[in-house]
Amino acid sequence: MTRRRPAPLVLLSTAVALATARRVSLGWGASADERRLVLPGDEIVVFPDLEATRGITISAPAAQVWPWVVQIGQGRGGFYSYDRLEDLARLGIRSADRIMPEHQHLVVGDTVHLAEQVPLVATTVDAGTALVLSATSTGPQVSTDPTPAARPAMPYEFSWAFVLVPVDDRSCRLVVRERYGYTAPWVALLVEPVEWVSLLMTQKMLRGIRDRAEARAPEPSVSTGGRDATR
Q1: What SS3 class is residue 200?
Q2: Which terminus of the chain has fewer Cβ atoms in its 10 Å neighbourhood, N or C?
Q3: Where are the beta strands (DSSP E) in 42-169?
Q4: What is the enclosing helix (H) or strand (E) of 19?
Q5: Distance (Å, rounded) from C-alpha 74 to C-alpha 116?
Q6: pLDDT digits (tens, 9 = 90+) for 121-172
Q7: What number of other Cβ atoms are within 10 A of residue 173's Cβ?
């Protein structure tokens, strides 16, 4: 005859497991130092109710990764993630496998869409270093979108930062941070489940950007046994 665990113990174990999984989810691929870093865009949501910082190492210089980052968005370069899942949601997103010159000139105030009815505004565009997209509970505050009335408000403040940190002359870290500021307690019931989907899509996006950038990375010098003579 097997003995059942007391219900409180089961609940405690489940709560600990969920808390651990949540912590791992919100920091996928990022170091402890990266999670503590103050990044561009943090000033948009000063006191976030939820923050996720994720990262990946890319064997290509930041200047070679930037063109893939700056063209993200629906109707642009896509998000380098699971296009088939996005198709199921009828988002009409296709991930580019090439650098698109027509989408390389993003400036502060431009609108980038997550989906047709989910616009974000570019609040930081620092070529080769950082791209920050954001939205407020009253809609994007600064935008060159000619149809502002079509921009719905979100029930939370939101910032999405893509930051390139050089490791050396051949590689960099791509750190992505999401910050949410809730406008009401019930918003957590919306954002928390979405954040698990964000983990799934973000880790694929990071790997998608890495693979595309590395495919165009310069070959190591043959004459130095695969290492640059200056290193």
Answers
A1: helix
A2: N
A3: 50-58, 111-115, 118-126, 130-135, 156-168
A4: helix 7-26
A5: 7
A6: 999 999 999 999 999 765 544 445 554 444 456 778 999 999 999 999 999 9
A7: 19
Q: Note if the pTM is more than 0.85.
A: no
Task: Look at the block and give the residue holding tokens 């890319």.
Answer: 58
- Enumerate residues 6+ apart whose C-beta is below 8 A from 229: 221, 223
Chain centroid to CA 76: 16
DSSP state of 165: E
Residues 6+ apart with CB under 8 A from 158: 45, 120, 134, 135, 136, 178, 179, 180, 181
Tokens linked to 91: 């988002």
How many whole angstroms separate alpha carbon 164 and alpha carbon 127? Answer: 10
| Domain assignments of the chain as residue spans, ordered by start | 52-215
Asked if 41 and 132 count as a contact pair (C-beta separation under 8 A), the reply is yes
